[in-house]
Specification:
The complex is a heterotrimer of chains A (273), B (544) and C (265). The longest helix of chain A is centred in the C-terminal third of the chain and has 12 residues, at 225-236. Chain A has three helices and 17 strands. Chain A has helices at residues 23-26, 31-35, 225-236; strands at 4-8, 16-17, 38-41, 44-47, 52-55, 61-65, 71-72, 82-86, 98-105, 118-123, 146-149, 165-168, 184-187, 203-206, 217-222, 248-255, 263-270. Chain A starts with a strand and ends with a strand. With 273 residues, chain A is mainly beta. In chain B, helix 4 (122-131) links the parallel strand 9 and strand 10 (136-142). Chain B is α/β, with parallel strands linked by helices. In chain B, helix 5 (147-154) runs antiparallel to helix 6. Chain C is of the alpha/beta class. Chain C has helices spanning 26-37, 44-48, 54-66, 76-79, 85-98, 115-126, 148-154, 167-170, 173-181, 193-196, 236-249, and strands at residues 2-5, 17-20, 69-74, 103-108, 132-133, 140-141, 160-163, 184-188, 200-203, 213-216, 222-225, 260-261. A three-stranded parallel beta sheet of chain C has the order 7-8-9. In chain C, helix 10 (193-196) links the parallel strand 8 and strand 9 (200-203). The chains are: A mainly beta (273), B alpha/beta (544), C alpha/beta (265). Chains in contact: A-B, A-C, B-C. Chains B and C meet through helix 1, helix 2, strand 7, strand 8 and helix 4 of B and helix 6, strand 6, strand 11 and strand 12 of C. Strand 7 (79-80) of chain B pairs antiparallel with strand 12 of chain C.
Chain lengths: 273, 544, 265
């Protein structure tokens, strides 16, 4: 299959802003045009081929190799195609994206999927802060799509998100689901403190015991039916969400009463066998 | 030197209505002829005097607070990129200082009046105004809630109050006096408001909003300030406030006055559900009383941020929208509230507001007395003025827009019955000549010999919004600043000041009161004249 | 006056009531108060983790509501401990919500120096208070990405220009290490910790003592500075202006760019 392959020649000395590395930009361009695409190395305009060896052209299937931890805005605003990063990648990966898929075999920086609308991001390693979050001052974070993180996530996971799904395989740090307005966050490895603080609506599921804000109230244990549907969907993505009554049940907490909000936090409690 | 030949000139100050005239410019002013220099062939183009905004909020603590509150808007707006000679900036709901100059000049405005400055932070307002390129500027000092002045009025010491007002104008290096919600802002410090013109305000026995209005109007007239009292009436934005506004107008009889953003003060009804436009009633009274001028404070649908010294109103708006809210109190002098807001055609109240602003502009007969404004950024951002011009000039376009409103709005407004269309001559009046005259700036909004050579040259265009949004040339004091949408030069503008006379003993009268109430030293309070980078003095009007 | 702190400070003497909150529980405490002012049910056990009692908080809430004009002052104990900006956000939100009952304001007690002044001017010229990047030729804002400490810790910069601050004394070690690694230029009346690890130190006249200017009070009121003494050194402003003039003589490095960008990155 026709594919574009970018290989980092050497890591940039300061931040490289490369919002041109999106399937949308690359799919319509010849190899020569791709090479001449403008990137910003610090304050200076450079050509993309100053930093990357570039093979292929006119494809929305893009593969990038190398340590891109200083390369930002990769996949920003993309609407289609597949983008694979073999190595670490810097901030704003897939921010504002509204379609297509991103897969990272490595770690990613802050604001992965910031204010994204649609599409899928899968990071096999860890991610930084503000995963799927709103940018400062914006009322709404992620509005749709799916983010899967196999490793750990930093603070403010899904801050102000309204729709969509975030799954964190490892542990999330403080303020997961901060000011959430909707959507679902699944924390397979639990979270540090202040999970769900100031949430208005939406669901946070934790498979490990977590400490809650004092402004959440316990409202019984159950096995919500919507989780069955969810579990089936997540199963196709390789994530195992327990939901059978034989295995255990979910403790349900509502809040945040400070808002006052109607969000729920479900904490998995395995059945005593 | 510059010659502009063959253009169709609209110069209401000299009664020139669409005549082909040549203009000659030397040393920044119009002259009768020039011998050399560049010639612009303006054949087939339309020439206006540079725009003048009588009421806007572009510099100072409150707009700067609004900037801090709206990073999400800065990100989605246009960015001006720096060059070796030009500073960068951001447009949007609360544009940055440099961008403010580029945006105003970009639609042909060359003079603006910042409508609300507390003395305490005036030093900062002047810093910001100095940063705004291209435009000439003036500002008005907030007086109607100054506690020292209110105490004097309470005690019946009118003469002393007059000296205090004059002293404050000079201390703030202002150009005139702004009165906001007289008595109401002072009351808001106690979480209260002043709703009735004849009720004593919180903390006082005799002083009422009505008595403040009359006294201040009289003081400004007697001091001979070129711009009359600039009044933001009580009960802004409240359904049924038409009665307050009419009563306020009665309190102003016998005095000159400029009523700011009248749209927000022209509502009938008892609450948000029954709110309707009373623009017709207001315009009828206004038309019969030539002592007053006004600006529309028109509303356009879309996002903006509302900022006003009217703290109580802003808290109400915050509760209605559930969005961000910022509030500033400025010691004894004033305060302000800031709330981001979206006007929507589907919202009954917003639709009535939209119609009311246009109705006022269309129902007030004399274009020399009603001016184009949106009370930037409250009703809409200033860079959307060309859209209002289009609404005023095209009745069909208005009808098209009205079709998008909820049907239940129609019996609350009179706009559908109004067929008036503004002429270019009238637009030049409400956008330039009129506000310049109301501000007492004889050298502005006027293409006559000896006046400042601020000129806008437009393409003739059936698309009115495009015509006024994208002038062919904008010339400021003889220098081409905008050419086909590109910024050419960014000269610094002047600041207009007045120095009304006051009793030299005023300092010594104020000092103990000041030291008793304020927490800065008296010497540091007035803005030093050295801090005004390019002052230009206007004379006070000598009485009799 | 109600004082909330994790330990008995000297301010306790001035306070009528002292509420000793458990360290790291500020955010929880303020969030509970937000719920309580709205009469949301909160239990004694939920309050317990803050180290305070239901009785104390109920009393506190009724006092706040009974006040005619309440002011909340807060400082770095709140904004620089775990939770950081969200702790400040919590207090600001509480103050805003208290206005449903009575007049309330909140005000940060800023750090030393003219922090507020820098904040105010950055806002008027760029729209943003701090954490701004100009690398694309116009201001962009993102605290965490462009804020000084984060830029230095990640080693994202290849030069540093320090004015009116001493990060060498206050920032985390990785940031200090990076300052030492790259060419760092310091403008300061004194030789600071940062000067010692810098490539260039330029001594300037101290503002307010021998250089004029404007300082902003924490309520954003500008105050003029009248110099009392002469200084042999130039002011910060003069040094920056002269550096700028020299930079302007260099060829333009900006490349082809439009005047106006309709969509930002």
């Amino acid at each position: 299959m026709n594919k574009i392959k970018l290989t980092l020649k050497k890591p940039p000395t300061v931040v490289l802003e490369a919002e041109v590395i999106t399937p949308d930009h690359l799919v319509e361009r010849s190899n020569e045009e791709i090479r001449a695409s403008v990137v910003y190395h610090g304050k200076r305009q450079r050509r993309l081929d100053d930093f990357f060896d570039i093979e292929g052209e006119r494809s929305d299937c893009v593969e990038i190799h190398g340590d891109l931890h200083r390369v930002r805005h990769v996949g920003r605003g993309m609407t289609r195609g597949d983008l694979t990063v073999r190595g670490d990648v810097g901030m704003h990966l897939g921010a504002h994206m509204s379609g297509g898929t991103i897969e990272v075999f490595g770690n990613a920086g802050d604001w992965v999927g910031g204010e994204m609308k649609q599409g899928r991001i899968h990071v096999h390693g860890d991610v930084g802060q503000q995963l799927g979050a709103a940018y400062r001052g914006s009322p709404i974070g992620m509005q749709g799509g799916t983010i899967l993180i196999d490793g750990n996530a930093g603070i403010e996971v899904g801050m102000r998100m309204r729709r969509g799904t975030i799954v964190v395989g490892g542990t999330a740090r403080d303020f997961a689901g901060l000011q959430m307005k909707g959507g679902t966050i699944i924390l397979c490895g639990g979270a540090e403190i202040r999970t769900g603080a100031w949430m208005q609506r939406g669901t946070i599921v934790s498979l490990k015991e977590i400490s809650l804000m004092p402004t959440f109230a316990y409202s019984g244990a159950y096995n919500p039916t919507f989780l069955n549907v969810y579990a089936r969907h997540l199963g196709t993505l390789g994530i195992d969400l327990p939901c059978a009554e034989a295995e255990g049940s979910y403790k349900r907490f509502c809040g945040d009463r400070a808002v006052p909000g109607k969000g729920e936090i479900l904490i998995w409690e395995p059945a005593v066998s | 030197m510059l010659r502009i030949t063959g253009g169709t000139v609209y110069d209401p100050a000299n009664g020139i209505n669409g005549e082909v005239r040549d203009l000659n410019v030397e040393d920044g002013k119009f002259v009768s002829s020039v011998t050399s220099g560049r010639t612009i062939d303006a054949t087939g183009l339309v020439i206006f005097p540079g725009g003048v905004d009588v009421h806007t909020h572009v510099a100072g603590g409150s707009i700067n607070f609004a900037r801090a509150m709206t990073p999400e808007d800065h990100r989605r707006t246009q960015a001006f990129i720096r060059s070796q000679t030009r500073r960068s900036g951001l447009g949007g709901m609360a544009p940055t200082t440099f961008a403010t100059g580029y945006l105003y000049a970009g639609m042909g405005f060359t003079t603006v009046n910042e409508a609300a400055v507390p003395v305490l932070s005036a030093r900062h307002t002047h810093e910001e105004m100095a940063d705004i390129p291209i435009l000439d500027k003036s500002c008005l000092v907030l007086m109607a809630n100054n506690e020292i002045m209110l105490d004097l009025l309470e005690a019946g010491e009118y003469e002393r109050a007059k000296h205090i007002v004059a002293w404050h104008i000079w201390a703030a290096k202002a150009y005139g006096v702004k009165a906001v919600n007289p008595g109401g802002v002072a009351a808001w410090k106690w979480g209260k408001d002043a709703n009735h013109l004849s009720d004593p305000i919180e903390g006082y026995k005799n002083t009422t909003p009505g008595s403040i209005v009359t006294s201040l109007a009289k003081i400004v007239d007697e001091l001979g300030i070129p711009h009359p009292i600039h009044l933001h009436c009580n009960n802004l934005g409240v359904p049924g406030n038409i009665s307050t506004t009419l009563e306020t107008m009665k309190h102003l009889e016998g005095h000159r006055a400029h009523l700011a953003h009248l749209q927000y003060h022209a509502y009938g009804g008892d609450d948000w559900h029954t709110m309707r436009s009373e623009a017709a009633q207001l315009a009828e009274y206004f038309n019969a009383h030539p002592n007053m001028t006004t600006d529309a404070g028109a509303v356009l649908f879309g996002d903006t941020v509302t900022i006003t010294a009217d703290g109580p109103w802003q808290h109400l708006l915050y509760k209605l929208t559930g969005r961000k809210w910022g509030n500033l109190d400025v010691e004894n002098e004033t305060g302000c509230g800031i709330v981001p807001y979206s006007y929507r055609p589907s919202n009954l109240v917003n639709a009535v507001q939209w119609a009311t602003g246009l109705e006022l502009l269309l129902l007030i007969d004399d274009p020399w007395r009603v001016f184009l404004s949106t009370d930037h950024p409250n009703g809409a951002c200033f860079w959307r003025y060309p859209e209002i011009v289009q609404l005023l000039m095209c009745a069909d376009f208005r009808k098209e827009c009205m079709a998008g409103l909820a049907p239940e709005v129609m019996n609350r407004i009179t706009l559908p019955e109004i067929n008036r269309e503004y002429t270019l001559y009238e637009i030049a009046t409400i956008m330039s000549a009129g506000p310049a005259r109301a501000l007492g700036l004889g050298q502005k909004g006027n293409l006559g010999v000896g006046k400042d050579a601020d000129i806008v040259i437009y393409h003739q265009d059936k698309d009115i919004a495009r015509m006024f949004g994208h002038p062919r040339y904008v010339i400021k004091r003889g220098e081409i600043v905008i050419e086909e949408g590109d910024i050419r030069e960014t000269p610094d503008g002047n600041e207009y000041l007045v120095k009304p006379s006051f009793d030299p003993g005023t300092d010594e009268f104020l000092r103990p009161l000041f030291e008793d109430r304020y927490c800065m030293s008296f010497e540091n309070y007035p803005v030093e004249i050295e801090r005004i980078e390019r002052p230009e003095f206007q004379q006070c009007i000598t009485s009799e | 006056m109600v004082l909330v702190d994790i330990r008995e400070t000297k301010s306790v003497k001035a306070a009528d009531i002292f509420l000793q909150v458990r360290p790291g529980k500020d955010f929880e405490l303020i969030t509970i108060l937000r719920a309580m002012i709205k009469d949301q049910p909160i239990s004694e056990t939920q309050i317990a983790e803050t180290g305070l009692t239901m009785e104390q908080l109920q009393d506190f809430v009724s006092r706040m509501k009974a006040a005619r004009f309440g002011v909340m002052f807060f400082g770095m104990g709140l904004s620089m401990t775990r939770g950081k900006h969200m702790n400040s956000a919590a207090l600001l939100t509480l103050a805003a919500e208290m206005n449903a009952f009575t007049k309330f304001v909140a005000m940060p007690m800023r750090g030393h120096g003219n922090v507020t002044g820098a904040d105010v001017i950055m806002r008027s010229q760029t729209g943003y208070p701090f954490g701004i990047s100009f690398n694309r030729g116009y201001p962009r804002y993102n605290p965490g990405e462009f804020s000084t400490v984060d830029v230095l810790v990640r080693g994202d910069t290849d030069c540093a220009f320090i004015i009116g601050a001493d990060p060498g004394a206050t920032m985390p070690q990785p940031a200090i290490d990076h300052l030492a690694r790259i060419p760092t230029i310091v403008l300061d009346p004194h030789v600071t910790h940062t000067s010692r690890l810098s490539r260039v130190h330029i001594t300037t006249a101290p503002a307010g003592i021998s250089a004029p200017g404007t300082a902003y009070r924490m309520d954003e009121i500008p105050l003029p500075l009248h110099p009392a003494l002469e200084s042999p050194y130039p002011s910060d402003e003069e040094v920056v202006r002269r550096i700028n003039e020299t930079l302007m003589k260099k060829p333009d490095w900006m490349g082809e760019r439009p005047q106006i960008l309709q969509t930002q990155i």
